[in-house]
């Protein structure tokens, strides 16, 4: 689009020479003689914003993506002028801006070229709509790889791909199909062991081309708005992702039950069917924390109503389910049925809260209830009204979570599947058309929903899930990957999608386990469960049009595999909760593709399948039928096979045998993995013992366990427990050091320490320099010991 001949004839325009510049605080303005202005803002030494305008002045600076609570500041900033360029220097990077045409390049402090404009910023006047199509092209370095961009159904490494960002309801999408439900215009570049990031904060339809059109050129462009992008310097991918996540924001901690297993279908009704499903989970002893109600729970698909034929007493039903450990989650869509007797519609109409066409009438579209109007969630007054609508659902009836669907926004029976582009939006005081607001509509709906659920769930924590999202949506909501299909290809897609979302700032994501459309075989469902339990959000969901998809819809073997892996997830809940804590505190993604884990190893650059769950567990799903094993790459270091405890040296590809009830799972040597006993739901059991699986390593390794009351906000007042653990392995000794922070007192009093891979026979055990008799700690030689949790250092000495 940027360079081909037909479009060049349309008249691409370019900045001319710089005629003046001003340095004001953290920003430097460069003015050209054809009225282009480049504003360079140093937010951090490694985070620089580049903002261009072609009209001689900037419009109001507004973004839904940026987390405005983040404080920015740099350590060093120097602006100098050379003969042909201006130079901006921070303590991390050097940026050079050419005087002749505003083309820019970024170097590290050793003058190594990280990023360089090719054509740089240019634009095409859009006479159809007014405004500009804004464009940017940059050189791609030899061997450069590209990652990120959120929810894309394609290879992890985007080299050679072109992608489109326009939130779209893509039922039963396929591999490489564009566009999908979410818009995350952020990518990570990696070359010569240096990583950087680009976040193109533009809510119009955007495109990214990673050397598809031209071999050594990458480019991005938008159908309107500004050329406004952020450059993030690493040099480690970890630094890039953390900085971007800080920039666009992080969620609050979910209640622990949200990290359990969830069951959903379109649709479970009537009430007797819901209770039949939940009872079967308890009968089969398959842990489950949440049951979902799809659109059929409503009266004629009217949001915030109940079908009293199906659910005569929803408050009692929700209470009954809660007594059995099930939290109820309900769907809410944006389409409000046009019905003069429907209270939500009447309120929206009276208060003028619905989206309008350019010539005045309300935008009307068909979705599940029939003809609907749609709230303008870009209006803060409408968001406040929408939040208040959740009072009955949350406060009175006791629903624990809300699921926003169809919020791309999706509209039926129209060619483009969404609103007409002339629909007007308030856009928080920056009025615009749907061309600009489309990609953030779903996020603003989720934002309004979040504030409503949070208000009425207090003092408990809210839970919201959304299908459509733009960068920054993670501050309000979790997400899933939309209407996938029960195929092996989609299992492969789901694995990559959730990894990609994790390094794109939206870590709290999962897929519809088993596939939403069509019907999985028992084998496919089992393999999907085995992957899904290692995703941050874990939910089976399916379309009722294609048969049943509960674990017991298949044979006894699949039931047993489901029980085994869901139970494993419940054992790993403290590990998963700790992952989430590190995500919200430090911006560390919960899932880490191998390239993120070890970018210096070029063997990781094109790996799709393997990923690191948290910091210390390596997972590789089985992605094809009839497999008795698979080849996989073990990253550098030492890793234990979780099932056999066999030790492997990494940095190589190996064959791993697997049974039907296993997938390859490895644990990093030196890791200390916390485990709870298996519960049928979070909070079912009181237990006096936390299990710590200690994997011996000759060397040092740090681990952590975060715990709190599992819900509520006391953790924000310091009532949490953060346990820093260190294992130090020597030839004839293993030392475990423990340091606790926080005021929360965990209910258990003991640790059961499982010893894995110990290379010596134990002759002596010391706790805090005191020798302990074996029988006092239930010691079983080279297997486990049980100790009081109040210790600082444990020595296990060999003969």
Automatic annotation (TrEMBL):
Domain DUF5110: 689-757
Gene Ontology MF term list: alpha-1,4-glucosidase activity; carbohydrate binding
Enzyme Commission code: 3.2.1.20
The protein's enzyme class: hydrolase
GO biological process, one term: carbohydrate metabolic process
Record domain Glycoside hydrolase family 31 N-terminal: where: 38-209
Name this polypeptide is given: Alpha-glucosidase
């Amino acid at each position: 689009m940027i360079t081909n001949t037909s479009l060049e004839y349309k008249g691409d325009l370019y900045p001319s020479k710089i005629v003046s510049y001003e340095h004001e605080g953290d920003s430097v303005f460069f003015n050209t003689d054809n009225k282009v202005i480049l504003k360079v803002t140093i937010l951090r030494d490694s985070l620089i914003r580049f903002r261009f305008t072609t009209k001689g002045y900037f419009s109001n600076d507004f973004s839904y993506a940026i987390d405005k609570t983040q404080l920015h500041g740099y350590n060093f900033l120097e602006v100098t002028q050379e003969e042909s360029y201006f130079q901006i220097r921070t303590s991390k990077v050097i940026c050079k801006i050419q005087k002749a045409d505003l083309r820019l390049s970024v170097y590290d402090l050793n003058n190594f070229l990280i990023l360089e404009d090719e054509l740089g910023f240019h634009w095409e006047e859009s006479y159809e709509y007014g405004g500009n199509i804004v464009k940017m092209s940059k050189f791609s370095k030899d061997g450069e790889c590209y990652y990120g961009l959120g929810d894309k159904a394609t290879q992890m490494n985007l080299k050679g791909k072109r992608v489109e960002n326009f939130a779209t309801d893509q039922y039963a999408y396929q591999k490489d199909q564009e566009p999908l439900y979410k818009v995350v215009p952020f990518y990570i570049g990696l070359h010569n062991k240096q990583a950087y990031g680009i976040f193109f904060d533009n809510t119009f339809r955007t495109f990214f081309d990673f050397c598809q059109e031209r071999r050594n050129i990458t480019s991005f462009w938008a159908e309107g708005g500004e050329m406004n992008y952020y450059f993030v310097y690493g040099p480690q991918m970890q630094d890039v992702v953390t900085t971007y996540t800080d920039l666009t924001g992080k969620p609050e901690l979910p209640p622990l039950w949200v990290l359990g297993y969830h069951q959903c279908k379109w649709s479970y009704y009537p009430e007797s069917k819901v209770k039949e499903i939940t009872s079967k989970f308890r009968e089969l002893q398959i842990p489950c924390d949440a049951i979902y109600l799809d659109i059929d729970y409503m009266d004629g698909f009217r949001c915030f109503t109940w079908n009293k034929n199906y659910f005569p007493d929803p408050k009692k039903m929700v209470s009954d389910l809660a007594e059995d450990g099930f939290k109820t989650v309900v769907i809410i869509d944006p389409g409000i049925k046009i019905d003069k007797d429907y209270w939500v519609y009447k309120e929206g109409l009276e208060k003028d809260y619905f989206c309008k066409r350019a010539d005045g009438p309300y935008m009307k579209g068909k979705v599940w209830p029939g003809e609907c109007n749609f709230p303008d969630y870009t209006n803060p007054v409408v968001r406040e009204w929408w939040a208040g609508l959740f009072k009955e659902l949350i406060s009175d009836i006791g629903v624990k979570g809300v699921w926003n669907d169809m919020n791309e926004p999706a509209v039926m029976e129209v060619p483009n599947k969404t609103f007409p582009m002339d629909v007007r939006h308030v856009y928080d005081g920056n009025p615009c058309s749907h061309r600009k607001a489309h990609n953030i509509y779903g996020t603003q709906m989720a934002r309004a929903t979040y504030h409503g659920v949070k208000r009425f769930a207090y003092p408990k924590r809210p839970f919201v899930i959304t299908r459509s999202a733009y960068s920054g949506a993670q501050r309000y909501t979790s997400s899933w990957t939309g209407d996938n299909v029960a195929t092996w290809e989609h299992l492969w897609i789901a694995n990559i999608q959730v990894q990609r979302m994790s390094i794109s700032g939206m870590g709290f994501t999962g897929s519809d386990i088993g596939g939403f459309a069509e019907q999985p075989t028992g084998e496919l469902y089992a393999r999907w469960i085995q992957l899904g339990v290692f995703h941050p959000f874990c939910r089976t969901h399916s379309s009722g049009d294609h048969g049943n998809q509960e674990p017991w819809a298949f044979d006894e073997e699949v039931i047993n595999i489901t029980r085994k892996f869901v139970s494993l997830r419940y054992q790993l809940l403290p590990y998963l909760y700790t992952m989430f804590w590190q995500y919200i505190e430090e911006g560390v993604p919960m899932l880490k593709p191998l390239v993120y884990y070890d970018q210096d190893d070029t063997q990781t650059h094109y790996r799709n399948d393997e990923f690191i769950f948290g910091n210390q567990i390596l997972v590789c799903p089985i992605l094809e039928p009839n497999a008795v094993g698979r080849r996989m790459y073990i990253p550098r270091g030492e890793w234990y096979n979780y099932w056999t405890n066999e030790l492997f040296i990494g940095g190589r590809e190996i064959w791993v045998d697997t049974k039907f009830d296993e997938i390859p799972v490895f644990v990093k040597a030196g890791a200390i993995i916390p485990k709870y006993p298996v519960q049928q739901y979070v909070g079912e059991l009181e237990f006096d013992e936390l299990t710590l699986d200690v994997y011996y390593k000759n060397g040092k390794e740090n681990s952590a366990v975060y715990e709190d009351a599992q819900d509520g906000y006391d953790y924000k007042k310091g009532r949490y427990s953060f346990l820093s653990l260190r294992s130090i392995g020597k030839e004839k000794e293993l030392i475990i050091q423990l340091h606790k922070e926080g005021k929360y007192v965990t209910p258990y009093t003991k640790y059961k320490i499982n010893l894995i891979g110990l290379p010596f026979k134990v002759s002596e055990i010391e706790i805090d320099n005191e020798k302990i008799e074996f029988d006092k700690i239930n010691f079983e030689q080279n297997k486990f010991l049980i100790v009081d949790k109040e210790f600082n250092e444990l020595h296990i000495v060999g003969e």
